[in-house]
Every structure is written in structure tokens, then in C-alpha cells.
Amino acid sequence: xxxxxxxxxxxxxxxxxxxxxxxxxxxxxxxxxxxxxxxxxxxxxxxxxxxxxxxxxxxxxxxxxxxxxxxxxxxxxxxxxxxxxxxxxxxxxxxxxxxxxxxxxxxxxxxxxxxxxxxxxxxxxxxxxxxxxxxxxxxxxxxxxxxxxxxxxxxxxxxxxxxxxxxxxxxxxxxxxxxxxxxxxxxxxxxxxxxxxxxxxxxxxxxxxxxxxxxxxxxxxxxxxxxxxxxxxxxxxxxxxxxxxxxxxxxxxxxxxxxxxxxxxxxxxxxxxxxxxxxxxxxxxxxxxxxxxxxxxxxxxxxxxxxxxxxxxxxxxxxxxxxxxxxxxxxxxxxxxxxxxxxxxxxxxxxxxxxxxxxxxxxxxxxxxxxxxxxxxxxxxxxxxxxxxxxxxxxxxxxxxxxxxxxxxxxxxxxxxxxxxxxxxxxxxxxxxxxxxxxxxxxxxxxxxx
Length: 450
Ligand code: FAD
Ligand code: MLT
Ligand code: ZN
What we know:
The chain has 450 residues and is of the alpha+beta class. It contains 16 helices and 17 strands. Bound molecules: flavin-adenine dinucleotide, D-malate and zinc ion.
């Protein structure tokens, strides 16, 4: 059957875009963290929306389940095969229209990488509201499918908030197109909003109409050291209303040690501290004076403030190189959680003890987007199928009224815990939507729902 399907798909996309060879498929079969892998029956790389539609219709006819894949930077195992599926790579859906300056919008193909989009809109004098460390590989389609967050959510919101319109293909090949979008359009259900965050289980995103933001030329970055997360939260409270505030990120002693060991970078200050916060402001005119003024009276122990591009990049490296440094230490269990900011102190003071009680051998590296209450808890030292530590952390999150998946999605990593923070009624409603759009359960089976 794969042979017959491969022949039919090759008729649609061309022989060179149907990969059957094990060596050629390998890069699509393992995720970025190396935790998740499975064999694809084949990888197909359609180049147009019409080809995506025909490919999905054919897969449907032969009952072949599909896994959509963009840049394969996802961290919850949703973009790689579990066993025998067709991987549909969006890499060739890489067209990008000229920026429409009158509306400050652009239409981009699902396979366009974030870095390429950023460069394209910068050349036209605009910025894009979402930014992530995986920018060189993460695609617009994957970012919509995961409703990616990143480092600017406090200012511009997650990926869903950037969507003005969308084109997507349903499991049976039906193309749903709302391009070009309109800022105001309440004509029925918000399908782009629904597909955002659906993790490839409802439709394959093929194009998006995206809102752009002003390109602010001046940027100031501060790295501050604190004796505890409580002091850092006090600072967050002071600076929340700073003009031009764009990012407030947190990381801790263990993470900095690991990043320095892995990258060869020196410690950020002459001595090490418990808690670090990175703050960035952007504006038309140099925001350094207002940033310094905003920090005055805060109880930080050390600081570095700069507007120089290279020095800013050096400060950001302490934060952005956490992910690769953790992975260099071993394959982690990645828990991406959020709690209400009012409970973040409770979370921070309890998480290590809960973890220790459940799985004493686990080591946790924490960092994240403090302004969103979003902490990435990375567990090292446990077998990958040993979920005692994950269970303890996610139950604590649920007790505090938080989310077990702040920005990465449920994927296959967290299906077990879906009911911790979603009611049976909520899950039944989501399942009804899934069944209505994909009755054969062909689109990313096993993702979100076990
Ligand atoms: P993939 O990994 O290919 O796929 C992710 C999911 O989307 C899968 O379920 C897949 O089936 C589905 N999918 C992909 N493309 C489509 C499509 N066109 N239509 C429908 N479904 C599709 N995430 C954040 O939110 N914030 C961060 O700050 C952040 N930082 C990161 C830093 C690093 C170093 C790394 C490695 C990852 C980071 N991530 C972050 C996670 C990841 O980059 C995001 O989840 C990103 O949105 C995934 O995009 P992708 O193109 O790589 O998608
Ligand atoms: C980040 O904020 O850097 C990420 O979401 C990646 C990660 O959790 O490792
Ligand atoms: Zn993150």
C-alpha cells in the first residue's frame, strides 16, 4: 500500500518530493530534543496549496494518517511520526508576498521561517510581534499550529494575536481560505483563531496573513541579579508600566552555570547569584534613561545595562542558549507551564520539594518568560518514560490554577495530563470539533488526545 500511495503522491508533487529512502527520511523522524522518534512510511513535500489538498485527499482515500511538519523545532513530539504515518513537510510552501505598507500586513507561506519573515518585514520598515530563539528554523505554519509565544508576548501577544487571515486544508482536502483578511470581520466563527494552537490536528496551515508592528530603532537591555524570585517579582511589578517594555525573562544559577559550561561564556557578573532577570525596552528614541529610572529603588544585587547591539546579544545568549545547553547535558523531559503571576512565588518555593519527594534523582533547570507566569521546567536525570517528576510538577501547577502547556502545546508529551486542567465538558467539546473536521482521525492522531 505505501508503494501505491507513493506512486500516486509522486504524480501530484513530483518524484523528487516523495522521500522513501531511510537516509532521506531520517531528519524528519526525530524531534529537536531527540526524545521523540518514529518511522514515517514516507515524507511528502508539496509545493502549493493545491498539492497539499490533493495529497490529503489521497491519504484520506487510502486511510493513511498524516503528521504535518514545519521546522521540526517543536518540543512536545507532535511533529514527528509515531509509527508508519505520512509526514507532510511544509518546507516548500515558502512564498512570501511584498509587505502591504498601507495595512502593515504581509501574507506568508506556512513554510517560511520566522527569521526570513523578520528580515523581509524589516527591509520594508516593520517588525513582527513574535520572536523565539528557534527563529532560524521554526516556520510560520508551525508557529500558528502551536500558537507559539516567546519573548514578546507581554507586548504583542502570542501567534494567534498576529493572525489577520489564514488559508488551511482540512483532512479531506477541502481548502478553507480567508485571505486577505480584515482587521474587522465578525462573519461567523473565527476559524483562524481555532486553527491556531490546534497542533496539526484540525487542518494543515498553508498560508497566513499576518499583522506587523512598528520597527522601533532603539533598544536597551538590562541583566539584573536578585537574591530570590520574590525580589525579581517585585521588580516586575515596578517595571510593568515602563514605556516600550518588550521582554522580561528569568533564569537561575543552575541554568547559568550550565550555559557557561556548555558555551564557554564567562559568568555574567563577577560572582554568581540565585536569580537573573533580563529586561528589554524598545522605542523611537533611546529608552535607556527611562529603563534606568524604572529600575531605581529595586532590590537587585548586580546589573548590566546596554544599548550596544553586540553587548545586548551577549546578554541574551545567557537566556537563549539554555535550551541547547540543557540538551547537551542529556535528553530532558520538558515541562512548559504557566501559573497566575500571583502564584508564581508559591510555585517557585514548592516545586523543588515536590519534585524531590516524587523523584529524588531528578534535577530541574528552570527558566522562562516571567512576565507571562510561564516557566520552563526541564527535568534531567530521569529515564524518559519515568514520569514521576513530571506528574508531581504538573499536579502542583494544577493546584495553583495554572496551565500544563503555556506555549509549546500538548503534543504527545502531555496527553496523559490533559484532564488536570480541562474539565470533561471542555475535553468533550474539543473532541467534537476534532471529530467534525477530521472524522477519520487522520490528522496527527495521538496529538492532544491520547
Ligand atoms: P514543528 O516542530 O514542525 O511542528 C510543531 C507542531 O505543529 C506539530 O504538532 C506539527 O504537526 C504542527 N505543524 C507544523 N506545521 C504545521 C502546519 N503548517 N499546519 C498544521 N500543523 C503544523 N516555542 C515557543 O512558543 N516559545 C519559545 O520561546 C520557543 N523557543 C524555542 C527555542 C528553541 C531553541 C527551540 C528548539 C524551540 C523553541 N520553541 C519555542 C518551540 C518551537 O520552536 C515552536 O513550537 C514553534 O512554533 C514550532 O515551529 P515548527 O515550524 O518548528 O513546527
Ligand atoms: C524558550 O523560551 O527558550 C523555549 O520555549 C524553549 C525551551 O523551553 O527550551
Ligand atoms: Zn519559551
